[in-house]
C-alpha cells in the first residue's frame, strides 16, 4: 500500500511538472528523434540539492522505462525456429523486459535554481545513436561470419576439414545472441525495410555456415593403402584397426584417390627378434616394422614420412608375437595420422 501511495505521489509530481518551465535547450530532446521524460518540481522539503535532483532523476527513469515497456508490449520479440533445416522468423508478443537494456543508452541532465528552489531533470535516449549501436553489432557479426567462412574454405582447400568445422561452429552461437538486435531496432523506430534487409543478411550468413557444417559432417576423407606381412602371410587386421581408430574422430575412407583429402600409405612387416625360456616356458619376441607416408590429396604434397617399430611377445610363437606387436603399431600409426591431419 505504501508503495502505491508513493507511486501516486510521484505520478502527481510528474503531472504537475509538465506545466513548469524546463530549460529551453532541452526542447531538442522532446522531438521525434528521442525517447524522453522530463520531471520538474519545487524543493518544498528543503532537501539537499543532490538528493532532490536524484529524486527527480529516479522518477524520470521510472517513467521512461514505463514508456519503453509500453512500446515493447506493442511490438514483438524475435524468435528463431528450425523448420525443415531452414531458419524461420516468428514474432511473439512479449511483455517482460529488463530495464537494464532499456536504459543502457539513457543520458541524464539536471538543473536547479537555488533562488526559486525549482529543479528539473531529464532522461532521454537518442534513438538514432541507439539504432546505430545495434546496426554496428550486426555488421560486426556479419564481418565475423564472412571471415569464418573464408578461413573455413581455406582450411578445406588445404585438407584441414576438422579445423574448418571448428571455426564455423565457433561463430554459429553468435547468431542466437544477435536476435534481440532486430527487436530493439523495431522498438526504437528503425525503418522496417532496413530491419528486413539486416535480418535477411544475417539469415543468409547463418544458413551458409550451417550448410557448410553439414557438408563437413562426415569429416576428413582418407584414401588408405595399408599392407602388413606377418612372416609371409597378409595381415589385414592392421588396416582395419587403423580405420576403426580414425573413424571415431569423424574420418571417412574412400576408394577414390581423387576425392580424398589425405592419401596415406602404410607398409608393415614382421621381424623375429629372440626368445627366452624360463621354468620350461618359452617366450617369443617379434617386431613389426612399418613405414608411413602422408600426402595432401589436393596438392600431392608429402607432409609426413617416417618409419616406426613395435615389439610384441607371446608364448605361442613368433607369429602371435608379431600380431601382438600389430596392436601397438595400429595405435601409434593412428596417433601419427591424427596429429598430422589435425595439427
Describe this structure in words.
- The chain is of the alpha+beta class.
- Helix content is 47%, strand content 29%.
- The protein has helices at residues 2-17, 49-74, 99-102, 127-157, 161-171, 174-177, 179-187, 192-215, 237-247, 318-341, and strands at residues 34-42, 77-83, 86-92, 107-113, 118-126, 221-230, 233-234, 252-253, 262-278, 281-296, 302-314.
- Strands 6, 7, 8, 9, 10 and 11 form a six-stranded mixed beta sheet that branches. A three-stranded antiparallel beta sheet has the order 1-5-4. The protein has a two-stranded antiparallel sheet with strand order 2-3.
- Strand 4 and strand 5 form a beta hairpin.
- Helix 4 (127-157) runs antiparallel to helix 7, helix 4 (127-157) packs parallel to helix 8 and helix 5 packs antiparallel against helix 8.
- The two termini are 67 Å apart.
- Mean pLDDT is 83; it is low at 1-19 and 76-100.
- In which range does the helix fraction lie? 40-55%
Biggest sheet record: 6 strands, mixed
Q: Note poorly predicted spans.
A: 1-19, 76-100
Structural class: alpha+beta
- The helix count comes to 10
What is the overall silhouette? elongated
Number of strands: 11
* First and last CA, distance: 67 Å
- Spatial extent as radius of gyration: 36 Å
Mean pLDDT: 83
Percent strand equals 25-35%
What's the helix-strand series? HEHEEHEEHHHHHEEHEEEEH
Q: What brief labels describe this structure?
A:
alpha+beta, three-stranded antiparallel sheet, 10 helices, six-stranded mixed sheet, 343 residues, single chain, 11 strands, disordered N terminus
